[in-house]
Amino acid sequence: MNHSLNSDSATVDQPVPPVKTEQIQSENDALIERVNEQITMGTFEVSDHVLKQLVEGLGDPRGLVRLRFAETLGEIGEVATPFLLDALANHSNVVVRRAAAKTLTIIADPKAVPNLLYAFLNDEDTVVRGSSVGALARTGEAAVPSLLEVLASNQPEDIKGHAAWALAFIGSEAADYLYKALNDASVDVRCAVIGALGHVAQEQSDEKSCSLLVSALTDPEALIRTEAAAALGQVNYLPAVPHLILALQDTDLDVRKAAINSLGKIGDRTALEPLQALLDDEQQVVRVLAKLAIGQIERQAEADDW
Asked: What is the DSSP string of 248-301?
C-alpha cells in the first residue's frame, strides 16, 4: 500500500528535450530553495501562483526533489489542498497525480475525502488508487462513512480489501462507527468491522470492542465467526477463552481452525483438555493445529511456573 515518492518514473504525453528538462530541473531547484528559505524565515506568503508552481514540481523526474516538494506542500498545509485535488483529478502527468495523492496523505485534510474517494475508485493508475486510499486512511474519522459505503457496494474485491485495510488503519478513531456497523446487512461490512475492532482492541484494550468480538462468535455467517475468532487471538483477550472453546465445536471448519489458533496464542490452561480431545478429530488439519496449540499452552505454562 505504501509507495515511496521516489519510486515513480516520469510519465508525460510527449518526450521532453534534454535542454528543456535541465531548465525545468534548475527552475524547480531554485523554487524549492526559495520557498523553504521563506518558510524558515517566516516570510513566506501564500499565493495561487506559487502553490500551482509547487504542485507542478511534483512532476520533477528526480524522486528526492519530488519528495522535497511534497514535504514543503505538507508544511504549507490545508491551503494547498484545492491545488493538489485539482492535480489529482485532472493532471495529464500520472507522476503528478501519484505525488499529489501522497502529499494529501501528509496533509490529511478532511475536505479532501470526496476527491480522494473518486480517485481511489476511478483513476486508471494503480499507484494513484493505492495512494488515494492511503490518504483516506490518514484522514481518519472523516473518511469512515465513505469507506463503509465502499464495503457495502458492488465494488471489486481488491477495492473492498483496500477499504477494509484503511478502516483498520484508522482504528480507534472509527470506534463509534464500527460499533454501529457491526449490525450492517452487508457481510463485507461486518467482516471489515471485525478486523478493525481487533485493531481498536489492541490499540487501547477496549473492553467494548472485545465484547463485540466475542458476540460475533455466534454470528449467522461463518466468515464473521472466523474473523472474530482470529481477532480474539490477536487481542489476547482472556475472557474469550470459554467462548473460543465452544467455537471448537462450530459446524464450519475455518471457524474451528481459527478458534484453535487463538486458544494457543492466548495460552490459558483451561483450553488444554478441549484441545486434547481434538487430537482424534477426523480432520487432519484440526489434529495438527490442536497439537501445535497444546504445545504453545504448555510452553507458556512452563514459563509461568519458572
From this structure: TT-SSHHHHHHHHHHHHHH--GGGHHHHHGGGG-SSHHHHHHHHHHHHHHHHHH
